[in-house]
Amino acid sequence: MGKITGFMEFERKGPAYRPVPVRLRDWREVYEPQDDASIAEQGARCMDCGIPFCMQGCPLGNRIPAFNDNVYRSRWAQAAEQLFSTNNFPEFTGRLCPAPCESACVLGIASDPVTIERIEYEVAEHAFTHGFDVASSAARETGKNVAVVGSGPAGLAAAAQLRSVGHSVTVYERSDALGGLLRYGIPEFKLEKSVLDRRLKVMRASGIKFHTNVTVGSGGSPLADLQRNHDAVLLAIGSTIPRLIPVPGADLEGVMPAMTYLEAANRAVLDGEPSPLSAEGLHVVILGGGDTGADCLGTAHRQGAASVVQIEIMDRPPDDRPNDQPWPTMARLFKTTSAHQEGGERRFSTETLEFIGDGKVQELVLADHATSETIRAAADLVLIAAGFVGPELERLGLNVDPFTTTRATLSVGSDWRIAAVPGASPVFACGDAVRGQSLIVWAIAEGRSAANAIDTFLGGEASVLPAPVEPYGLSW
Question: What domains sit in the chain, N to C, each tagged with a CATH number?
């Protein structure tokens, strides 16, 4: 513990935001740089608790008190060593994770929790800037080869782990570029794609092979071919079927899944061209109050929307932790993102009843459950950010998880293996394809755990790789 009284002396303080009028003119990340002295103060706030509940709150089991203390003492290399030992991609989670570790921070019981996520970001950036180790290297080659289908955070984490113990790894991605939702689902103002490309460069240098524009299953490369050509196959295909809103008018032009809109926007930014689905001059309605909805909100602002309304069917979350969501659980609290600071209207307790238009959407009919009134809202563009119902399983012909009823996910055993899949080599699965739509930190944790199972299978003995989590449903 670096400074015994640090949590009493220093207030929680994150980086400043760039001014709204400035950041709306570009797609860069929204934060101003934070100096090392300020970051050290935030590290000093860590109480180094006897039982570090923050580590239990983190699916990866990050050694949070250790890297907080090292940051306070300006020992950045040691902090990086601690962080990268449990998290393959802290440069991603430091930007995108909702930080369940902070919900579990003991200091948060009576005060503001430590800025764990931002400290993680700073440690990762210092590591890349100063040339510290950001990936583990293989001491020997095993002669075994693994196919990883999907290049999102789960697939990339598994690939990095398997390569670190000497297996040959090939990643297959059906899109034209690597990264899964990190590439085309997350706006540039939350994750500049140079950060993703920087990590992919490190992975290529380690010997991992990547192939894009490869579809596995019907209409593409048969799964059986991968099994014949590899000693193991891992499916990390994500949860990509959007949850839609089946009400009258849902087929009108201008009503679309959020990811359709976000992918077009991300591609346009990368190509330096206007998006074919631009919100410029339009009245935009976003159905869904979560992070994807906020991503649509910030994107619409930058495209010059005439107005933006974000609608959530659930009640407004409370500002403070409710009694039925006690510490150290991750409570559902009212959240204001950088996109919300930029403008737009938010409505809660509001249900969509109908889309109205003559071929193209013009209005929404809404039920305001707080007032029991039926209202109408102008809409030229409606973005449905209601989550996902599962992975695209039909093209793979695989079993559905018996533990879930609302989401059709892949069923795996305790060894992350899909039972009863015929073929020359076993098929494993992890990430959102197994768990259902979840957090990036869970995807990385599952990728690491699946790598442990695959390495155990290939080596015939217990793997030295960590396995931070069990498959979803098996630990109930």
Answer: 6-130 (1.10.1060.10), 145-240+389-459 (3.50.50.60), 247-386 (3.50.50.60)
